Amino acid sequence: MPPGVDPFDALLLVSFGGPERPEDVVPFLRNVTAGKDIPDERLVEVGAHYDLFGGRSPINDQNRVLVAAVREDFVSNGIDVPVYWGNRNWDPYLADTLAKMTADGVTRAACLLTSAYSSYSGCRQYRENLADAHASVPGAPRLDRLRAYFNHPGFVEPNVDATLAALAALPDAVRREAHLVFVTHSIPLGMNAASGPIGDAYVHQHRSVMDEINDRVREETGHRYPSALVYCSRSGPPAVPWLEPDVNDHLRALHARDVPAAVLIPIGFVSDHMEVVYDLDTEAMATARELGLACERAATAGVDPRFVAMARDLLLERAAVERGADPPRAVVGTIPPAWDVCAAGCCANPRGPRPALCGSD
Ligand SMILES: CC1=C(CCC(=O)O)c2cc3nc(cc4[nH]c(cc5[nH]c(cc1n2)c(C)c5CCC(=O)O)c(CCC(=O)O)c4C)C(CCC(=O)O)=C3C
Ligand SMILES: [Fe+2]
């Protein structure tokens, strides 16, 4: 094992999972919503989004390509550790992947989540699912979760370039008057208030990414585009307040103010998940068309080489920390690099405490 990755002997990509056939859609939705307060109407609606794509979510294929790209990046950089992939909600399930890793003799794996920000849904729930899977596999390797990477240059820089490319794709006549519309997954206000070690981390982290992209776009174009942080994919009962405005309402508000063009920048998603291909490319684009608003969607980080290299950088960084060193940590913007180990109560579960790995509780 090269000293660079010691004490780790594997990387585990931990993702959400998605259905791949029409008959998988309902069982997948049952997995996701078990014990959650989501109205049946919403489940029917979300099932229809998947049906529109032949019952196949894009997320698993995105992860297959990402795993292949990370493996290739490791090989070209002399990093000799295997890369595994497991999901919270669909095959390959985390427990099955941990069983395979155990059989392969893995003793300690670094976990990279396909979620860049802090919240119960994007952080602690992954850690709870890791704890469940770990408890179900005797002799499973020790797992350490790599820090939240919303402000790693390997994530932010591809988003900057994607924003510039989407702006360039707008018609010349309206480009200068365009607004930048940063989009992420809505969550309940209470979940945002409980996110991170002191609360509000979810919105605060997104705002810092938005500010950084705005600054860099201004440097590149010489123009400060007006912008907003908006939300998609709200669910849950209407009486529970979630983060707003919804992206479609925001596009209507822009149109009402005579704004002729917008760029949608899905900073909340690391690749083209269902939220991106349905909520943005299908639904929000239809809203924009209806309004006569010129609209382009910026690409997600996906397998941009800088995002792929970020996996290696975070692995080497954490390995150095575990060996007792204090390595430099790549970061952009005004928020310091996120913690390696979540504090007690960080991103609290709204339904009460449950066992979770990779934290001090
Ligand atoms: C913050 C956040 C992320 C980003 C972080 C991350 O990436 O993890 C995310 C990602 C995703 N969410 C996904 C799918 C779903 N999320 C749901 C429900 C919910 N998400 C929530 C939050 C988030 N979700 C919340 C607060 C709920 C309500 C229920 C609850 O309190 O937990 C439901 C139930 C139906 C509905 O209500 O929409 C589905 C089907 C997929 C797969 C997409 C694909 O197939 O490509 C992905 C990547
Ligand atoms: Fe979700």
TrEMBL record:
Location(s) in or outside the cell: Cytoplasm
BP terms from Gene Ontology: heme biosynthetic process
SUPFAM superfamilies: Chelatase
Pathway entry: Porphyrin-containing compound metabolism; protoheme biosynthesis
Residues involved in Fe-coproporphyrin III binding: S57, Y126
Reactions it catalyzes: Fe-coproporphyrin III + 2 H(+) = coproporphyrin III + Fe(2+)
Primary location class: cytoplasm
EC number, UniProt record: 4.99.1.9
A molecular function (GO) term: metal ion binding
Residues that hold Fe(2+) according to the record: H185, E275
Keyword annotations: Cytoplasm, Heme biosynthesis, Iron, Lyase, Metal-binding, Porphyrin biosynthesis
InterPro entries cross-referenced by the UniProt entry: Ferrochelatase, Ferrochelatase_C, Ferrochelatase_N
Top-rank taxon: Bacteria
GO cellular component entries: cytoplasm
Pfam family, one: Ferrochelatase
Protein family per UniProt: Belongs to the ferrochelatase family.
NCBIfam families given in the database record: PRK00035.2-1 (NF000689)
Function: Involved in coproporphyrin-dependent heme b biosynthesis. Catalyzes the insertion of ferrous iron into coproporphyrin III to form Fe-coproporphyrin III.
Name listed for the protein in its UniProt record: Coproporphyrin III ferrochelatase
Organism per entry: Nocardioides pocheonensis
